[in-house]
Amino acid sequence: MITDAFDRPLRDLRISVTDRCNFRCTYCMPTEIFGEKYQFMKNHQLLSFEEIVRLTRLIVQLGAVKLRLTGGEPLVRQEIEKLVAYLAEIQGVHDLAMTTNGVLLPPKAAMLRDAGLKRVTISLDTLDNDIFRRMNGGKADVEDVLKGIRAAEVAGFSPIKINAVVQRGVNDHTIVDLARFCKDNGYVLRFIEYMDVGTRNGWVMDDVVTADEIIQRIDAVLPIEPLPRQYASETSLRFRYRDGGGELGIIASVTKPFCGACSRLRMSPEGQLYTCLFATHGTDLKTPLRGGATDDELLDIIAHMWKKRSDRYSEVRSTQTTNDRDKIEMYYIGG
Questions:
Q1: For the domain that residue 210 is a member of, what is the CATH number?
Q2: Does the pLDDT at position 285 exceed 70?
Q3: What range does the domain containing 25 cover?
Q4: How far apart (Å, rounded) are the C-alpha atoms in residues 317 and 237?
Q5: CA–CA distances in Å: residue 182 to residues 64, 103, 313, 320
């Protein structure tokens, strides 16, 4: 196991399998930028499944035990269940999960479960269909996501996690309804503070609904109490309902950063490694990989990169921070 400049171990790998998505969410891929003429990566630029598996196996050797497939939308990558099956066979992997918007899940859920996927997290920012369509660029209805959630349940995924990005003046007035819905159905809801990932979503601090405010709004209607983190690098502040009706969490990267225990490495669709969600540059593995590098040579590149890692963007962010830093985009690196 290797550690970085702040003695943080490498434990989690997030694998973005595509830069494409069937949504155009305003906080990630706004339609005015990612329109019909936008040029996404060509197939030959993407890592093949075999290349992803080879690099993942090496990163697992260095300490990663949890894998998460992201995008873009991972389910737009053809035959993604084959990649899941390959990754599930890697010795040392304790957890294999996927984050998806859920719309393409109905025909895939059972195949993914059979292939070895252990958990799914489904994004649903609000139950209000008009607001939901405005947030996703008019690409889907709430019912489309609910069908995906139901398919995941039928396939045997449990518990199902729901992610909801909260933006002031957009969907923040609907968070109690979403919390009640998830509580009643046994889903584990994770509210996410609106973050300044990338440079194209128009982020300003005034649009952030803070964790404290979210807690107050939920607690006033559905009383909650805090729970301890399950492990040091867990991203979510956890709470349980006082009536015993399950739990919810808040990912508060803006107001309560967790950089000090961050153990996450991110792999882009074209084989760049990033040591922070807010990174400005990555480490190229595709070039040496396709140039004939040995496993030992690739291991040296990865280990050297992690050992010098000193990222702690969220801890040094201030209330005056704006999106004027050339950060990698979330659709490309995953959430």
A1: 3.20.20.70
A2: yes
A3: 12-333
A4: 19
A5: 31, 18, 31, 34
